[in-house]
Amino acid sequence: MNILLTGGAGYIGSHTCVALAQAGFHPVVLDNFSNSSPEVLARLEKILGRPVVLERGDILDTAWVEQVLRRHAPAGVMHFAGDKAVGESVAQPLKYFHNNIGGSISLLRAMASVHAAQGAWTTPALVFSSSATVYGDPASVPITEDFPRSHTNPYGHTKLVIEDMLAAVQRSAPDWRVGVLRYFNPVGAHPSGLIGEDPNGIPNNLMPYVTQVAVGRRERLSVYGSDYPTRDGTGVRDYIHVMDLAEGHVAALQHLLQAGESFTVNLGTGLGNSVLEVVRAVEQASGRPIPYQLAPRRAGDVAECYADPTRARELLGWKARRSLQDMCTDAWRWQSANPDGYRTGAA
Ligand code: NAD
Ligand code: UD1
Asked: Which atom of ligand 2 lies closest to the CA of 87?
């Protein structure tokens, strides 16, 4: 059974390819490599022992996406493609509205058109990468799916709009099945160390920054805020191993295909860890000290954010299994084997 992954060469998409292939599906990667490298496909082949099909192009090109859908007749589509840097979205909002919202509209139109033509592929099943960012500054933790949604930056705004668009499409066409997955903080890498997170430039997110300090690419970490009302004053987040997240996608797809009902679920562990706890866990995994300095809070950050993952467990039978130490060990294995990410060359 073919499954189309838009943005499938990216961080989460590439790990989901592995989980899908291991569950017996045939992933088809659609990517324009705007934030990833074709080297990912070579690494996936090493992990899986066979090539993964690639369609190189842009989801904004609706006619081409239609051709891709016709060519592969996927049983489901996983929609990862989009831009994701919060700071950049504040500086360049139109880039985000165009690529994230415009790209989603283009994909949905292509799916609708192929569906209407009653091709071999006729029953739209879509898994969408949403984010805990849609909860804005939550009134309390843990966060359940019925918490009010809000946005604090254009990136978050696009996720909210796409969620709303998907709900409207389902109201207009009840045979569509849509799984909205709200990720908490994906970190770590496949245990092979062959694929992982490879941010361009200076990482915005904590884990890649810390592992780049450990490998000697950055001098020290700035800890943004040490006066939060948390156990050690630093921000608390729900870090989830990217392979747990990838397996969550497989469970979501299977539910869409088997039960045929749409849903929205949090994908998180339900546990919160502070910045300093992550620093210590990476020190342990790498055997290297992580120099850090305490710095002012980062604009837009919240003190604590972690999931109530009950719905995903009850509905999908999925639960995160890997620990913070697993996440740091695997992130370190990837970073130390690929100090310059995919530019490091064949591993
Ligand atoms: P990523 O940047 O590594 O992957 C996105 C992929 O989409 C890249 O390979 C990029 O080249 C591709 N892409 C972008 N625009 C495209 C277009 N117009 N046409 C074709 N391909 C295009 O990001 P990721 O971390 O893997 O995130 C995947 C999805 O999950 C994104 O939608 C992101 O917003 C969402 N998400 C990520 C996180 C996180 O922490 N990584 C958290 C919550 C939600
Ligand atoms: C950020 C985004 C969020 C997005 C998510 C995944 C913001 C405000 N939020 O979430 O919208 O969905 O990434 O891409 O950007 N930290 C440091 N030093 C650093 C980096 C981070 O102390 O150099 C701290 C942060 O203050 C926070 C924690 O580490 O307390 C986690 O930060 P990060 O990895 O950026 O994730 P979020 O802020 O949760």
From this structure: 15
